[in-house]
């Protein structure tokens, strides 16, 4: 079957047709137009399938908040065709058995590629290195290692992890948070934290670990990826490390591109996240860093939590926000509508670059003939209020509930298979 997408606005801004056949993009000029299924893409923006390097799918062990199957539904709805699943499951993804289980569940769900992330340390305990080689060599083919949720605080352990990863062409994705500087911290350290009587979280807790890790990565000749950069100071450290030629990449979350600590005033657990929402100057610096390439990618840090984990005193609530279904709209609002990124830039920071960091094949030539047909059609003119009832994941702990966001993901193809049609996730088994 051939599908013809007519009149889409593609990455350079030009309007052209795209054709999907046998899982790949083919030359529309060679297609029998009468026999093809046609999708009218006029007025729509075509993007390559989005890739999320930082998703919590919660399975195994956290199925009350999310499963691989519900998580990939949310991913597809948000325009994602590939998600990297974080290792802080229960049991932790520190053995081939767990990463292979997550990978298999992803294949069964079929809506997006699920690439398990392996733990850096056994049990995320920060004491003993997990067997990175075994995870990389497993059927799940792990390429990214992270203790996310926890910082690899021990410099010696981080050094060894970077050395092992370098030998495997893998990357260590560090959750940069000095635990000694963040004991009991639940929000950004600021006058507002003092006013609200909540323990603050200094920017230096993040930046100091990134500075240390950059030097360790340089010494090891390894690739370092910094998870969820949240402050001006960290941006500056990443900028300096890049200028020095260190193989460092960094991500920013959609929520850190749009929201500030002011939201914590209502003590609503939905706004509690790790790292915390910061100040306006941080939001501005993060946007500029994403625009100028200091920050390489947007990653959601989609972190589903069951209602009871959030509907409690702010200090006791779980850290985390769901984000797969709102990421593109937030990026449109914060980066495209502000003139900081064009759609080609969005494709770079939400697809090509995260795939490159995670060594995921098939995303290096976005929307090019011959590439796998991972395609998203977005209506940039649509606007909608985010409602809990419309979210496809199992948890609704979104900071954007009740907020109007631009952009609607209308159609998605994952390897040529339609996963979203007219804004609805297409169910019906594995690819
Ligand atoms: N980002 C979050 O706020 N939460 C993450 C882990 C973490 O604490 O980083 C989660 O797994 O819930």
Summarize the structure in words:
By secondary structure, the protein is α/β, with parallel strands linked by helices. It has a single domain, classed as Metal-dependent hydrolases (TIM Barrel). 29% of the residues lie in helices and 21% in strands. It has helices at residues 68-77, 96-109, 132-137, 155-168, 191-196, 204-220, 232-243, 254-258, 280-292, 307-310, 327-336, 343-357; strands at residues 2-9, 15-21, 24-26, 37-40, 45-48, 50-55, 80-85, 113-116, 144-145, 171-174, 187-188, 200-201, 223-226, 248-252, 297-298, 375-385, 404-414, 417-421, 424-425. Strands 5-16-17-18-19 form a five-stranded antiparallel β-sheet. Helix 1 crosses helix 2 (96-109), helix 4 packs across helix 6 and helix 6 runs parallel beside helix 7 (232-243). The radius of gyration is 21 Å and the shape is globular. The protein starts with a strand and ends in a 6-residue tail after the last strand. The relative contact order is 0.16. The mean pLDDT is 97. The structure holds N-carbamoyl-L-aspartate. N-carbamoyl-L-aspartate binds next to loops. Catalyzes the reversible cyclization of carbamoyl aspartate to dihydroorotate. Belongs to the metallo-dependent hydrolases superfamily. DHOase family. Class I DHOase subfamily. Pathway: Pyrimidine metabolism; UMP biosynthesis via de novo pathway; (S)-dihydroorotate from bicarbonate: step 3/3. It holds the Pfam family DHOase. It catalyses: (S)-dihydroorotate + H2O = N-carbamoyl-L-aspartate + H(+).
């Amino acid at each position: 079957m051939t599908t013809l997408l007519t009149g889409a606005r593609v990455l350079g801004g030009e309007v052209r047709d795209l054709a999907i056949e046998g899982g790949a993009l083919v030359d529309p000029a060679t297609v029998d137009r009468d026999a093809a299924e046609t999708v009218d893409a006029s007025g729509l923006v075509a993007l390559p399938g989005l890739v999320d390097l930082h998703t919590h799918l919660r399975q195994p062990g956290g199925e009350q908040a999310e499963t691989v199957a519900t998580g990939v539904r949310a991913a597809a709805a948000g325009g994602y065709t590939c998600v990297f699943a974080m290792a802080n499951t229960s049991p932790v993804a520190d053995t081939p058995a767990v990463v292979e289980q997550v990978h298999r569940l992803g294949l069964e769900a079929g809506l997006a590629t699920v690439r398990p992330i392996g733990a850096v340390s056994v049990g995320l305990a920060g004491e003993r290195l997990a067997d990175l080689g075994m995870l990389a060599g497993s059927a799940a083919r792990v390429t990214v290692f992270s203790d996310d949720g926890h910082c690899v605080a021990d410099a010696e352990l981080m050094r060894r992890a970077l050395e092992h990863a370098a030998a495997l062409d893998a990357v260590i994705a560090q959750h940069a948070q000095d635990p000694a500087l963040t004991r009991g911290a639940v929000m950004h350290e600021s006058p507002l934290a003092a006013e609200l009587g909540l323990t603050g979280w200094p920017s230096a807790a993040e930046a100091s670990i990134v500075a240390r890790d950059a030097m360790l990565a340089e010494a090891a000749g390894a690739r370092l990826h910094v998870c969820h950069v949240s402050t001006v100071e960290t941006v500056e450290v990443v900028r300096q490390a890049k200028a020095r030629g260190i193989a460092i990449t960094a991500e920013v979350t959609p929520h850190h591109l749009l929201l500030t600590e002011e939201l914590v005033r209502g003590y609503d657990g939905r706004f509690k996240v790790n790292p915390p929402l910061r100040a306006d100057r941080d939001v501005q610096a993060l946007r500029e860093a994403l625009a100028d390439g200091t920050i390489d990618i947007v990653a959601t840090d989609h972190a589903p939590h069951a209602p009871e984990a959030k509907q409690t005193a702010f200090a006791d609530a779980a850290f985390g926000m769901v984000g797969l279904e709102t990421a593109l709209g937030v990026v449109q609002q914060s980066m495209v509508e502000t003139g900081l990124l064009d759609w080609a830039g969005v494709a770079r920071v939400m697809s090509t670059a995260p795939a490159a960091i995670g060594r995921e094949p098939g995303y290096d030539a976005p929307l090019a003939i011959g590439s796998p047909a991972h395609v998203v059609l977005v209506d940039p003119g649509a606007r909608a209020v985010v409602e809990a009832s419309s979210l496809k994941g199992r948890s609704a702990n979104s900071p954007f509930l009740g907020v109007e966001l631009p952009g609607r993901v209308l159609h998605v193809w994952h390897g040529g298979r339609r996963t979203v049609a007219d804004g609805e996730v297409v169910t019906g088994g594995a690819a």
